[in-house]
Amino acid sequence: MHRISTSDIVEAQPTVAKPPRTVRVAYFVSHPIQYQAPLLRRIAQELDIDLTVFFSSDLSVRGYKDAGFGVHVQWDVPLLDGYKYEFLPRMRESDTLGFAKPLNWGIFHRLRKGRIDVAWVSGYAQLFALNAIFAASLLRIPVILRSDSNLYDRVRSKKTLAAKRIFANLLRPAIAGVVTIGRANEKYWKHYFGEEFPLTRMPFAVDNDFFRRKALEAAPHRESLRRELGLEPGRPVILFASKLLTRKRCIDLIEAFIRLAPSPETSLAAYLLIVGDGEERAHLEARVRESGLASIRFLGFRNQTELPRLYDLCDVFVLPSVHEPWGLIVNEVMNVGRPVVVTDQVGCQPDLVHDGFNGFVYPAFDVDVLSQCLRRLIDDPALRATMGENSLRIIQQYSFEEDVAGLRRALALVVSGFAA
């Protein structure tokens, strides 16, 4: 009989799980943005993503005169809480952002010193962003690019389009992957980088919980807000909220609304509230005075925490823009469960607005069709309610959790050993 010696015994070793690979991510973005701050806080909670945000400018923290709104803006939501960040050194302070405004330095040094694994860059239309892309390339750090570009852009000359194609061909080798915000953005990158280029969906989202919570808090006070604004009970409210710029086409909404009235003396069944400010305001107000309608009201600029009260008050939201990269305000309103009407040049419409299901999509500039859409929604409360419920269901798929999952997939594509 064979005797078993201690040398024959191999003790089973406990299996020790390898700790997850931590990825050091440097995110480069122009300035603190009210929409992005809560997303950055959420990403910072991921134990295996060591995120540091590098800003080119601090103008949104200091307060500034917004060129679009035409008023001094100081955001009333926290922009810097809950994540690591640094403002890059700059040549001089600037109250505006431009291709070379401000001029920053130190990107290469920070990438190398921080032993960064991935550079995540927002946009490519500023010198700051291009410096980050090419500094990372020199250090052989993979670059993930995110932008809100789409092919709905303004008409450009053949020469300009050719130059853009050449630029895209130069940029492409420096980019390891693109995170796309939606279908229109995905088409853009396939157009310029090719069908085979690695794309990962990281949808444009807002803080859904914030807007739902604030709207629920506002609902019991809806009638007091009506009285505050001088609105009669029971009349539907159509809402526009954006910068009053030419490309936002608020004038089309005003014209469509005017066409609903048989005459200036006849009271319409609805109100049109216009929230925002900007270079077009005087022109728009003059057109409203000329129409003689008292049911169109201008409410001026309203800050982030004020908007949910107005979303809750409205029955229909309209964004009549052209050349609109996305339109995050549509996300916000859909969280309150409202139907939305947008043009076919609003970037979010292929993803968020399903024509006839949770709102309407109409051809840009077509005032007659817009007026017909408004009429259908004003006259049919049941349709508004059904479309609003559909909006709420759709927007649940466009959350920060989806964004985190998309970012993780993108990181897994460019970093060996990182688990999506």
Q: Looking at CATH, which topology of the largest domain would you report?
A: Rossmann fold
| Poorly predicted residue ranges | 1-12
Compute the number of strand runs.
15
CATH class of the largest domain: Alpha Beta
Report the principal-axis shape. globular
Main sheet properties:
7 strands, parallel
Assign the structural class, choosing from mainly alpha, mainly beta, alpha/beta, alpha+beta, or little secondary structure.
alpha/beta
Give the count of structural domains.
Answer: 2
Could you tell me how far the N terminus lies from the C terminus, measured between alpha carbons in angstroms? Answer: 54 Å
CATH superfamily of the largest domain: Glycogen Phosphorylase B
Roughly what percent helix? 25-40%
Q: What count of helical segments does DSSP give?
A: 16
Question: Strand sequence of the main sheet, in spatial order?
Answer: 5-2-1-6-7-8-9
Rounded average pLDDT: 91
Radius of gyration: 25 Å
Task: Label the CATH architecture of the largest domain.
Answer: 3-Layer(aba) Sandwich
Descriptive report:
This protein is an alpha/beta fold and 420 residues long. It folds into two domains: 23-205 and 399-414, Rossmann fold, CATH 3.40.50; 208-395, Rossmann fold (3-Layer(aba) Sandwich), CATH 3.40.50.2000. Helices cover 37% and strands 15% of the residues. It contains 16 helices and 15 strands. It has helices spanning 37-43, 59-62, 107-113, 127-138, 158-171, 183-193, 208-218, 222-229, 250-258, 281-291, 307-313, 328-334, 349-352, 367-379, 381-395, 400-414; strands at residues 23-29, 49-55, 64-65, 72-73, 84-87, 118-122, 143-146, 177-180, 199-201, 237-241, 271-275, 296-300, 316-319, 340-343, 359-362. The strands form three sheets. The chain has a seven-stranded parallel β-sheet with strand order 5-2-1-6-7-8-9, with helices on both faces. A six-stranded parallel β-sheet has the order 12-11-10-13-14-15, with helices on both faces. α7 (208-218) crosses α11, α9 packs parallel to α10 and α9 crosses α14 (367-379). The protein is globular, with a radius of gyration of 25 Å.
